[in-house]
Amino acid sequence: MTVSRLPLDGIRVIDFSRVLAGPLCSALLGDLGADVIKIEPPGGDDYRAIGPFAHGESGLFSAMNRNKRSVVIDLKTADGQMLAQSLCAQADVVVENFRPGVAQRLGIGYEALSARNPALIYASVSGFGQSGPESHRPAYDIILQALCGLMDATGAPDGEPTLVGDSVSDAISGIFASWGVLAALVARDRTGEGTHVDVSMFDATLSLTAALVARYAATGVAQSRVGNRHPTSAPFGAYRASDGHFVVAVLNNKLFSRLADAIGHPELADDPRFANDTSRCTHEAALRACIERWAATRPVDEVNKALGDAGIPVAPIQTIRQALDSEHARTRGLLVETDAADGSTSRLPAQPLKFSAYPKTCTTRAPRLGEHTSSVLADVLGLDSNTIAAFAANGIVRTNDTGKLQENDLA
Questions:
Q1: What is the per-residue pLDDT across 275-286, written as a single tens digit (0 to 9) for each?
Q2: Does the keyword Iron-sulfur apply (predicted)?
C-alpha cells in the first residue's frame, strides 16, 4: 500500500549552509518531505552567482537548493541571531558548513542551540572536521581530491595526477551528512536526545575511495595510477573500437572464455598467460592487444552488441547528455520538469531512491532570495507584519538584495 506522506514529512530543517556539500545534504532531506528553511545572509548563497544560468538563475544553485524556503537574516546582528536561534528552537535538524568556530561566533553553534533544544540534530560539514590539527583549514573539492590520494590514483600510469570529472568530495560529504542526520533521527526516536553530527570532507573523501583504502589497509602499499583499467583484474577497463571507446568487465574464467569466443579467439581461454585473473592482469598488455585488434574494424555499437549478446558486461563510454537523455534515465525519472521562478519550466535532478510504500519524492524549484522571509517568520515564530517590517527596516531581515559572502567563512 502506498501512503500519501513522504518519509520525512513533519521534519523541519534549518539550513545555514551554502555552495555544495551542505546544501546537497539538506536538498536530499527535502526530497524526502522535510521542510527545509534556508537561512541566507543579505548577499545570498554564493552559488546564486555561479553559472551556468538558465531562466536568469544559477543551474547549480537551483539543483542544490530545490525543495527549500529562503529566509534572509543578517546573523552579524544581535536581533538576527535571536531570530535564527528561535527558528532552531522549533526545528528537528540544523545543517551548517561554516569553518569551525564561525557558527559559534554567529550565535548558532551546537552548544547554544542544543541548550534550548536538546532533541536537535546538528550537522556540521567542514573541510577537516571539528577536531584535529587541520581543522582550521578551508577546503575546496580540488584540495580534498589532492590530499586524499584520489588525484594520485587517477590518470595514466605515465601521466599527471588527474581530477575526477566532478566535485565528488563535495557530493559525497553531502551524502554522508544526510546519512548521518537520518541515523541520528532514528536514534532520537529511541532516546529523545539529539546529537552533533561532525562531517569532515577529508574523512568522507577517504571513505569514498573504499577500495583504495582497503588495499592499503591490507597490504601497506598505496595503489599507483593504472589509467582506464582495473588495478587487479583483466580484461577490466576501456578499449578502443573503430569509432570510439567501450568498457568491459571480466572477473572470472567463465566470462573470459565467453569473451575469447566472442572475439574469435577461443584458444585464449587455454593460454597459460590468461589462466586466471591474476595472470591475465600480469599480461594485460598482450590481452589488450588481442581485444583491440578485433575491435579495430568494428564501431562501438557493433562491439557492444556482440559482447552483450555473449553475456559479457560491456558498455559504451557516454557523455552526461547521453546518460541523462537515455530511455532508462527517463524511465527512472532522474530529471524532473519543474516550474521556474519566471513561470517557464526547468529540469532539476530528482532523489535517486525509490520507495515502494511512498509516492514519488518531492522536487520543487529553488527559492528566490528571501522569498519566504515574511511567511516563515509569521508562520513559525508568530511575528506580525509590523514586527517583520521593523526588522526589515533595520536591515535585520531582507527579501531582496545582492552581495557576496565572506569567502573565509566557508568550509
A1: 999 999 999 999
A2: no
